[in-house]
């Protein structure tokens, strides 16, 4: 029996529909910002085009890919707000460039209330904060009317998500801030700003749980990673911090009713040409909380001013309100296999609170050298309980 032309076309149409249906289940639908009027010419403002593309991508009920092709896209402050209807991937092949000054705002690019977000760059994707002008305004302790200066990328209430292969350069303020996030993996990112750019923290984490930062390079003018109140189960692994102010807990105890910090591990990292290596810092105040469960291991320090430091009299600029010793209880801290060079004489400084001494601080296999006048390297302890074993250079004060 010969097939009629109409039967052939019906079979063909059926097959076509079937295959496009299965393809749609597997593939992403692309929301290309250029289709919404964006132009990557480094001149045109693309804020509205990006927001329109986001609206459609976020309402799409399948897998949506928000796509930024190569080019330089000028972009004002944007809030990408969920929840979205399907899975969302934000793919950045181009460079997003902030205006050099856009008035007062806390954040440049914000993602909020999104589950299973993937944000990825690649060899070319970058966020350019154009911070040079803002840095002059960001010396807040000298400036009573300090303006709000935007963070480059703010992730708020983001869960089960990944951010990878993204570059951020010259942020005006912090590069990345996470708040209220749960289970976010950040990997293969590169953050850079000059060593003397004020407040350009690499990644600040507050009120967040299960955050992993791996295989990344951070060089900036403030803390490479700072873990703030309410952080729990944070991991930093194979990250280079150079230059910067090191990996920090705090500052804590600055305000009332702060949440505890529980569980922070830094491993397999390098800190170089930095003011601090691993630092725990708390203000002298009556505000109490607990900071506990720290593992700092397999860390190479090169020319770091304070490789290992607990500072419970933190006050970066006067006048300091020393009304009370710190009421942040620091406990269960392990420093293991930390080696390299200190650029000052005191390589290990554990300066805890007279009201609540540090508990269970353990030093194991420390080998930090200082080559300069006043050497060899020394360690300094006050109000700290704990023990040391294995190699101890400088000699332990515990
Ligand atoms: C993050 O990484 C950990 C360890 O590889 C993995 O178990 C977890 O599922 C990852 N989370 C996401 C959201 O990719
Ligand atoms: C460590 O991170 C660097 C920089 O991202 C990467 O090139 C390297 O492969 C990572 N090493 C491991 C063991 O994952
Ligand atoms: C902080 O930890 C202490 C000791 O585990 C606990 O008593 C206190 O309730 C915690 N604070 C908060 C805000 O969870
Ligand atoms: C540290 O890095 C080394 C080599 O890059 C690797 O073999 C090892 O598994 C890493 N350790 C951890 C705890 O990531
Ligand atoms: C180290 O940091 C200083 C500023 O503190 C900078 O001038 C210098 O170029 C850096 N050196 C290296 C080798 O990165």
TrEMBL record:
GO terms for molecular function: polygalacturonase activity. Keywords: Cell wall, Cell wall biogenesis/degradation, Glycosidase, Hydrolase, Secreted, Signal. Gene3D superfamilies: Single-stranded right-handed beta-helix, Pectin lyase-like. InterPro entries: Glyco_hydro_28, PbH1, Pectin_lyas_fold, Pectin_lyase_fold/virulence. It comes from the Eukaryota. It is found in: Secreted, Cell wall. SUPFAM superfamilies: Pectin lyase-like (SSF51126). It catalyses: (1,4-alpha-D-galacturonosyl)n+m + H2O = (1,4-alpha-D-galacturonosyl)n + (1,4-alpha-D-galacturonosyl)m. One of its GO terms (biological process) is cell wall organization. Belongs to the glycosyl hydrolase 28 family. This is Polygalacturonase.
């Amino acid at each position: 029996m010969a097939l009629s032309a109409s039967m052939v076309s019906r079979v063909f149409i059926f097959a076509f529909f079937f295959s496009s249906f299965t393809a749609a289940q597997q593939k992403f639908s692309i929301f290309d910002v250029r289709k919404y009027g964006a132009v990557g010419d480094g001149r045109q403002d693309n804020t509205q085009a990006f927001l329109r593309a986001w609206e459609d991508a976020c309402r799409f009920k399948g897998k949506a890919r928000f796509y930024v092709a190569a080019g330089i896209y000028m972009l004002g402050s944007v809030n990408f707000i969920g929840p979205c209807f399907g899975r969302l991937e934000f793919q950045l092949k181009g460079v997003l460039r902030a205006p050099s000054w856009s008035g007062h705002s806390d954040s440049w690019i914000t993602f909020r209330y999104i589950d299973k977000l993937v944000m990825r760059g690649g060899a070319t994707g970058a966020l350019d904060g154009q911070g040079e002008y803002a840095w002059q305004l960001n010396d807040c302790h000298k400036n009573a009317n300090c303006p709000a200066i935007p963070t480059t990328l703010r992730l708020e209430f983001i869960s089960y998500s990944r951010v990878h292969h993204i570059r951020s350069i010259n942020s005006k303020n912090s590069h990345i801030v996470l708040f209220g996030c749960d289970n976010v993996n950040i990997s293969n990112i590169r953050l850079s700003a000059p060593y003397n750019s004020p407040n350009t923290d690499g990644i600040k984490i507050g009120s967040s749980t299960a955050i992993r930062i791996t295989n990344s390079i951070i060089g900036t003018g403030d803390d490479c990673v700072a873990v703030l109140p309410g952080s729990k189960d944070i991991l930093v692994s194979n990250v280079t911090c150079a230059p910067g102010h090191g990996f920090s807990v705090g500052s804590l105890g600055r305000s009332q009713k702060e949440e505890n910090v529980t569980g922070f591990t830094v491993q397999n990292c390098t800190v170089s040409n930095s003011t601090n290596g691993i630092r725990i810092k708390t203000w002298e105040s009556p505000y109490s909380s607990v900071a506990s469960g720290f593992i700092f291991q397999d860390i190479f320090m090169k020319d770091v001013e304070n490789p290992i430091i607990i500072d419970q009299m933190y006050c970066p600029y006067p006048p300091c309100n020393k009304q009370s010793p710190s009421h942040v209880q620091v406990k269960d801290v392990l420093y293991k296999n930390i080696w390299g060079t200190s650029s000052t004489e005191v390589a290990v400084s554990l300066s805890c609170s007279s009201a609540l001494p540090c508990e269970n601080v353990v030093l194991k296999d420390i080998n930090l050298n200082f080559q300069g006048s006043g050497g060899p390297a020394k360690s300094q302890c006050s109000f700290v309980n704990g023990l040391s074993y294995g190699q101890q250079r400088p000699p332990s004060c515990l």
